[in-house]
Amino acid sequence: MHIDIITCVPQLLESPFQHSILKRAQTKGLAKVVVHDLRSYATDKHHKVDDYAFGGEAGMVMMIEPIANCINQLKNERVYDEVIYLTPDGESYNQKIANQLSLKTNLLLLCGHYKGVDERVREHFITREISVGDYVLSGGELAAAVLADSIIRLLPGVLSDETSALTDSFQDNLLAPPVYTRPANYNGWQVPDILLSGDHDAITDWRFEQSLARTRARRPDLLK
What we know:
By secondary structure, the chain is an alpha/beta fold.
């Protein structure tokens, strides 16, 4: 999988892709993430990427020209399955969407900033708009990192145990069950006996029951 990310603050994305699972995925050649500095595509000597909004609204708006220059150049290099704009008013991101996007080959992510992007960018370049929550961030960079992380970890070979992702929360619309590790007894706090029984069918049933109970208590909306 290839993911290109367009941002006017590339420094915010230096760390997330240089450690842990995301770094291993790239080292293995299973994924490639390339961050593009939008200012490199500005046409003026000051590399300006924002300007005042027409109509006098407070705040700056990301200009269409640098974004169009960048997207058009990248499109000359590969065909994108989706061109995604990270924005608070996009569709709410969830595990189902992550699963869908993990099946794609090439993704292009545009990080919003300031008051957002010129609406013509959304009308003519963007194929999908995604929000990571009902709140506002300073920019789309952290949202892009969240999106990339949730997608890449689903790619075959990225996790050491490929079945691990299948038992995560929100797969099958259930929260994950409680998990335990050694020691089996800590300060008198005991791991449930069923997990030490070796009866795999019974353990599977217990985990499902725990997932269902936890979902019913914490996220009943998922059961609808």
